[in-house]
Each structure stands twice: as structure tokens, then as C-alpha cells.
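Example (one chain per record):
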Amino acid sequence: MSESTSRPLRVAVVGCGNVSRGHIRGWLGDPDRARIIALVDAAAHQAEARRAQFELSDVDILADYREVLARGDVDAVDLCTPGHLHTEMILAALDAGKHVLTEKPTGYTLEECRRLRWYARRYPQQKVAVGYSLRYYPLNIKVKQLLAQGVVGELLSIEASHNHPSPLGGAGYAESGGRTQLSDSGGHYLPSSELTRSTHVFDFMRYVGGEVRDVFAFQERGGTFALMRYESGAIGKAAAGIASDQGLATPHVLSVQGTTGTLFTQNDRVISAWGGGYHGFVVTAGKQQRIDVAESDTGHGDATRTRNFLDAVYDGTPLIAPLEDSVATSELLHAIWLSHNTEQRVPVHRAHKTG
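Predicted structure:
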């Protein structure tokens, strides 16, 4: 499909739970190039609530995503659905000729990873972007560029963490024992998967450091922890977990040691002399220099994610988190899961062949 810059991309948002709010804001923030024409959710009250919240009175409400795939006036679908539905919906959307923006992860099994990789190669003209939030922070985009340019020399080690704040002392958390929820907001059963409970930081480790050769990982109440060996020879340590909403979620995000210096980022929402926010620094020759970026888009990187997707559709700009790259992250996640369950070091298997 060829888009004309004379009209906005016509988008259907599929899944209207909490995560859809940021996605909708992203589309509404670029009205010259995007227009939401449908909200889809099996629980109709969810879609109706989003339509009312964002005053989208002219937007259609639908219950089945297949309805929008059959419509000629839909150019792209934005999948904000539970993770176990992503593969089915991505494949169906590509078969229907639609562009896709999807929440993570992609590939609940290695066979799903294999199918998604094949579809990405089968439909190269259609854009599929994945919402791995840490990639869309402008500072993290700059960090990746600096590391690729050799700002700290050859990479020796990478350490990263990412936590979601939770009401750990609340009654609901205590009643669930801290376990993952069993149903979505519409009451539908949510299958489990072989993936870790948190995925952002492990994708981030690949984003800044390249492919991982093998991992040793374990899970406890506080989260998932992994030691990694990169194909480059660098080593990595990642932590993905939960934090009390009474403290700081992720004061330290990234630390990279290279042969000629150090790069690190931190969240200083409470203690920063810089006035709060997410900041990065490079230390070389004994001197510390702040990494300057033109804007700040943390949280879920909604504005940057949407802009990158539209740039890719209209101008052919490379996607920050394309489908095949996110599939490689899922393969890493499967290795982390297997390492935890076997208590062994596990190589990362690429799902080109199965059986």
C-alpha cells in the first residue's frame, strides 16, 4: 500500500485497556499524519470509555479485530492487546495488507518466533513496529548512537535495570501473592507463556550491546535477573523487577564500561541537582560530560514511537524496533526462562528451524 501525504494514516486501535491510553495520545499528537477511525475491544465498555475519555465521538466501536482488517478505510492497526494474542493478530494484519504497531512481546513460543520472522520477510513493504519503550527514549537513542561511534571504546561490560513501581503493601497485591493476573479487564482468561514477567530491560540490553550468546538467569519475588555473554565478548548484567511505589522505581538505568571510558544514565526525579528527569553522562579522560538531547519522552516513549512509525510509513525511515529485531528479543527471553527453570547456562537459540 502506498500512503499519500495528502491524507492522514487511518488507524484502528485494538485493545482499549490501560496501555491504549498512551498509544491514543501518540496518534492524537500527530493529527496531520494520523487519524483514529476505530476502537476495538471484546469488552465494549473499555472501547466506549476510551472514546469518551479522548472525545472521539466520530470513532467506530467494534468488538472483533477481524472487522477492521476487512475494511478498506483502515491503513494500520495498533495492537494494545494481551501478549498471547499478538502473533495471531500481527500475521492476520499483514495478510490483510495493514501496517502494524504492536505492544511487546512478539512470539510466545519459538515456533511463533519462526513464523513472525518469515512473515516479516514475506511482507517487507509493510511496517511492523514494536513498543519496547526504552528504545524510544530520546536519550537512549542518543546513547546507542554514541556507543556505535565508539565514545567509550570497545565495550567491556553493560549493566541495566528497569522496575515497575507497585503497591507492595496493598491488600490486592497481598491477596494475589504478587502473582501475575489471571484475566484481563474484560474477564477473559490470560494464558501464561515461557517469557519473563518483565521484558523491557532485556530488549534494551540487545539494543545497546548487540546480540547475546548465552545467559544464566533466575527469578525471585523481586524480579528476573540475568548474566549475559555477548557475541562481541562483552559481559552483561540485567535486572527486571518491581519496586515499591513508596520509593524510587529505577534510580539507575544503564552503566556501560568501555576500554576508553564510561557511559551511564540515571533517573533523578527526586534527588537531581538538574531538576529531575532522565539524564546521561560520558566520562572519558577523567572528565564527566552530560549527554544533551533536544527532548525528553520517557514513560513509554509514546510520542517518539508514534513519530518513528509514521516516518517509516511515509518516508521509509528505519524503524527503531522492527518486528524481526523484537523476535530476536523474544528468543533471548526464552533462553532466560529456560535458564531459570533448569538452573543452567543456556545459549540463545535463533528460531530459523524447529523440530
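Caption: The chain has two domains: 9-131+302-321, 135-298+332-347.
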